[in-house]
Amino acid sequence: MKKQEIIKIGKEVLNIEAEALRSLASLIDENFAKAVDLLASTKSRVIITGMGKSGIIGRKIAATLSSCGTPSVFIHTADAGHGDLGVIVEGDVLIVISYSGNTKEVIDLLHFVKRTGVKLIGITGSKHSKLAKYSDLVLNARVDREAEPSGLVPTASSTAALALGDALAIALMKLKGFGEKEFAFVHPKGQAGKRLLRVETLMHKEEQIPTVAMDTSMSKVIDEISQKKMGMTCVVNKEGTLAGIITDGDLRRNLQKYGKDFLQKTAADCMTRNPKTITKDDLATSALNTMEGNKITSLIVTNNYGRIEGLIHLHDLWRTEML
User: Fold this and answer.
1) At what angle do helices 156-176 and 3-25 cross, to 10 degrees?
2) For 150-158, which contacts have Cβ atoms below 8 Å and span 24 or more sequence positions?
3) Number of CB atoms found within 10 A of residue 249's CB
4) Tens digit of each residue's pLDDT (9 = 90 or more) over 28-72
5) How far is CA 244 from CA 241, 247, 293, 300, 308, in A?
6) Radius of gyration in angstroms for the set of CA atoms belonging to the chain, rounded to a whole number
7) Domain boundaries of the chain, sorted by first residue
8) Are 279 and 303 in contact (CB under 8 A)?
9) Would strands 232-236 and 211-213 be described as parallel, antiparallel, or unpaired?
10) Which of 132, 70, 71 has the alpha carbon at shortest distance from 98?
């Protein structure tokens, strides 16, 4: 087979599957909204099952739902009758994936499910199948054709089921108000977790923060910077709010400016006013962008009233391997 023929086949497959997804969007109806409401209202878990390729798709959907705030478990349909049915308890919602809707192992499982009273959502390509008949809600995942010419290999149909699962997960996220903060909580590792780290989790607090009053002599300012080893110190006014910052660079510049009188000066004389700040709820990536954009190595964390809550240093971000 020539290279151009292979490329043509690849494009045809992708075009067929893309068209299947476009058609699937037109099948989203009231049942989809009802399914999202049902999944959001359950006080227990979502159980997902399927055979063959549908099972593989089901495992991925379960993982996506769990990572997006809806606790989900996958059980293989073939294993269900050999003890795994014990996973399903009252209050669960069961999602069954079967394109034909008539797979024997699936139908055998449905008899048990109906006895337990567990709510059932069927994802199938046949609205007249046994799965559709048993389901409380049916999500139509019909495709016009598979990407494989004989129609025997699940391709477009499995892609459609996967996409429908993603649609459920994202709709649930938005309905539940599951945002970046919640996502970060269940993704503490990996690049996703690093991107969603909050400043609060990395910042130095309380006695770790170098701080001096505005009338502090520069000799004592140098002591504070040296002891806390942050390369800077915050300067606060009589009200206890942030007035300025003195960095190692400020020390050198003011030494050149004042010469032998430098140590007689106060923090107020030498500080940089209106320093860059950030809040504890900001993303660590925002802190990094601010530091890089302003060519600084520290950011003071303040609240809405200008009081200091923490300090984040470039080295703290390096330790996360975010850079």
Assistant:
1) 40
2) 154/52, 154/53, 154/54, 154/99, 155/13, 155/16, 155/17, 156/16, 156/17, 156/20, 157/20, 157/99, 157/125, 158/53, 158/54, 158/56, 158/57, 158/99
3) 13
4) 999 999 999 999 999 889 999 999 999 999 999 999 999 888 989
5) 9, 10, 19, 10, 11
6) 30
7) 3-178, 199-319
8) yes
9) parallel
10) 132
Q: At 191, which amino acid appears?
A: Q
Q: Which residues pair with 47 in a beta bridge?
A: 73, 94
Architecture of domain 199-319: Roll (3.10)
pLDDT digits (tens, 9 = 90+) for 169-198: 999 999 988 766 666 666 555 556 666 678
d(CA 122, CA 129) in angstroms, rounded, equals 10
CA–CA dist 81, 167 (Å, integer)? 30
Structure tokens at 172: 């649930």
pLDDT of residue 181: 64
Beta bridge partners of 213: 236
The rounded distance, in Å, linking the Cα atoms of 166 and 67 is 12
**Total Cβ atoms within 10 A of residue 53:** 17
Contacts of residue 80, defined as CB under 8 A and 6 or more positions apart, other chains included, come to 49, 105, 109, 112
Residue with structure tokens 């809040």? Answer: 279
Whole-angstrom distance, CA of residue 116 vs CA of residue 120? 11
Does pTM top 0.70 for this prediction? no
Given CA atoms 123, 128, 132, 136 in this order, what sign does their dihedral have? positive
pLDDT > 90? residue 166: yes
Which top CATH class is 3-178?
A: alpha beta
